[in-house]
């Protein structure tokens, strides 16, 4: 009885508080297409923005199917931040169908895109890109220098949507850019410590092109071993030979479904089995890569520990 | 005390009796023919003797022997004729009680298999697969296996059905030989002439025992008529049995 | 050239040598068991067993996560339970082996799916449980070797009662009480070989190497011991040729081996001396006596 009374008191208090804050300050409703952009937006927007994301932690933005909740979020938003470069093939339709009058900001504006290598796309690509980029590699955020461009673009978009917060946004961005600079330095230092001939790995990810270009670690595609079909003896023989002849020190094959097969390949070829690399999305708070900076740090650590002598 | 004793035995299926209140002794060394119309309970009785069917009431006792020491030839053999096994190997199954399941088949055992095959006229058939045998040859092979079992009690359920006269005659010789060796032999038969000619004792069964004793006294016209009157089908509306005055005769 | 094709891959790559060793060893145990399965008209048991082990694997998963050993042990227990219960029911009631087994494995599968979905995860448990012939580590090879040894020893022990049970079960029951234990031991062998095979080589190979060689042997031999020898030999040849095929083409090893075995089966079906089709269509002239 008393318990129920206390509960209703608490509820009333909350309601009052909420209505108070609501009257005090309307947060800017922003929708980011995926977790990495959401992270940027939160860092730059601070508590002036309310960021919702479409593709959550661990999701695959290449093949995402939007939900009705997503449509609602987009309809209610004032600003939608997208990656661009063909990353979110499904998004333009969503925005149109949400009937939205929000501004769409492309985070990669001004970024020099790489060509997407003729790499086997292991994801089941059934999205239709809007072909205005000629198969560019969309994973531009993998280079911290590009991340700085992302940050700047997002800052500008936020200022355009909410001029009153311009001061705050600029301040936040400066702080964030400093962090990014530090991150970039750390990555370069870590790579420099590796002997030059050991700066190559085999990875099933085709998402590290910008990283490779920026920091000098070569990502080589495994010949044959894919995620979908069953490996043949020929495939396994090829990849072992490839590792041996090209003297590749480590393999990151987490997409291959059978861990025992990976171990066999590693044992026989002498390569070290690397762990997981995060490329397309952050993890949730409990995971290893809850923010962008955490993600880059985690990846470089995984790479260097696998490649160190 | 005979080799086999029935203590008020009732055997049947689903509570319906196929053999009803049988009591008596089978003397050791007897050569007993069990006769009666179809559905008289002969096969059921034999299954009970061999231990395959538990009596609904009463007991069957074997003096000193174990049900596994009885050589039994069923009426319809549940044999997989397509199984890839040779006549030799099949017949040597008869040695199981002697060698055990893991014992080897040595020189001595091989010789006894050969002798058994010879006794039934199947010398030369050792390597043949059982699927290639005719009905008569099959029956001879089963008799050979029985021979090897060297059992004190032999139970044959309609052994001469559907086989030719020559084979029947040969196998009958074997039966006589067993009797001469002092084994107890029970055989369910339809051929009354055969019974009168070869079997000294007979049990006329018509679900309930009609007569049991010397063949000539059992196979009288009256007894046979009484047996024929017995109803074959199970009575679905029958009440539970109340034991009445036993109507069996004692064996001689 | 021949060397390059037939020996080269195995000389050069350790994973190929291991794959060959694994397949050969499994053939030694599995093929004879398969012959008996075929003779007892239980050739589809393998597939049924693959589903029957699910609840065991599911419980293993519930108790210790994606721990392969726990899941395999769980699978073994479930497999034994199903095999033994099905066998008992078939012996003691009117229901025959096939229907009995079908009922139990379906129940087992449904139970497994329920356990997995209650847990709320959609990991394809069976997929995790099943192995890959290209990925045989020391532990798995040892398990296969132990399995083959145990199988051969037990099979030798229960050979006679097993044969009798197939040919004339009534007779066996009348002379010995060993029929039921022999049958259970046999089912245990089937389960062990299958679960071990699944774990090491995956379903297709495990079941295939048990069932196809037996079928092949049927066309070449008239007695059971020759059948077992031929079954083992065809399994070995298929394994070897299949691995070579997978090495030089785009075919994964499991299907490659089974395709070779199926091809040999087809050839046997046509040309085999025992009821082969060609022999039936064009019989040799009959003998004098």
Write a brief caption for the model.
The complex is a heterotrimer of chains A (309), B (252) and C (289). Chain A is of the alpha/beta class. Chain A folds into 2 domains: 163 residues, Rossmann fold (3-Layer(aba) Sandwich); 115 residues, Nitrogenase molybdenum iron protein domain (Rossmann fold, 3-Layer(aba) Sandwich), CATH 3.40.50.1980.
Number of helical regions of chain B = 9
Integer count of domains of chain B: 2
Name the shape of chain A in a single word. elongated
Number-wise, the strands of chain A total: 10
- Specify Rg of chain A, calculated over alpha carbons: 22 Å
Report the CATH architecture of the largest domain in chain B.
3-Layer(aba) Sandwich
Structural class of chain B: alpha/beta
**What CATH architecture of the largest domain in chain A do you see?**
3-Layer(aba) Sandwich
Provide the succession of SSEs of chain A.
HEHEHEHEEEHHEHEHEHEH
The succession of helices and strands of chain B, N to C, reads: EEEHEEHHHHEHEHEEHH
What does this entry look like structurally?
- The complex is a heterotrimer of chains A (309), B (252) and C (289).
- Chain A has 309 residues and is of the alpha/beta class.
- Chain A is built from ten helices and ten strands.
- Chain A has helices spanning 2-24, 35-45, 68-76, 91-97, 144-161, 166-193, 209-215, 233-246, 259-269, 292-307; strands spanning 28-34, 49-55, 79-82, 103-106, 114-115, 136-137, 200-203, 218-220, 250-252, 272-273.
- In chain A, the strands form three sheets. Chain A has a four-stranded parallel β-sheet with strand order 2-1-3-4, with helices on both faces. In chain A, strands 8-7-9-10 form a four-stranded parallel β-sheet, sandwiched between helices. A two-stranded antiparallel sheet of chain A has the order 5-6.
- Chain B has a six-stranded mixed β-sheet with strand order 5-6-7-3-8-9, sandwiched between helices. In chain B, strands 2-1-4 form a three-stranded antiparallel β-sheet, with helices on one face.
- In chain B, a hairpin with a 2-residue loop joins strand 1 (4-13) and strand 2 (16-26).
- In chain B, helix 4 (107-119) crosses helix 5.
- The two termini of chain B are 12 Å apart.
- Chain C has a single domain (2-278), classed as ABC transporter involved in vitamin B12 uptake, BtuC, CATH 1.10.3470.10.
- Chain C is built from 14 helices and no strands.
- Chain C has helices spanning 2-12, 14-39, 45-52, 54-64, 68-92, 97-119, 125-129, 138-167, 169-175, 179-201, 203-218, 224-248, 253-271, 277-281.
- Chain C is globular, with a radius of gyration of 20 Å.
- Chain C starts with a helix and ends in an 8-residue tail after the last helix.
- Chain B binds chain C through residues 50-52, 67-68, 70, 72, 74, 77-80, 83-86, 89-90, 93, 96-97, 101-102, 129-130, 145, 149, and chain C through 39, 157, 160-161, 163-164, 166-171, 173-178, 182, 221-224, 227.
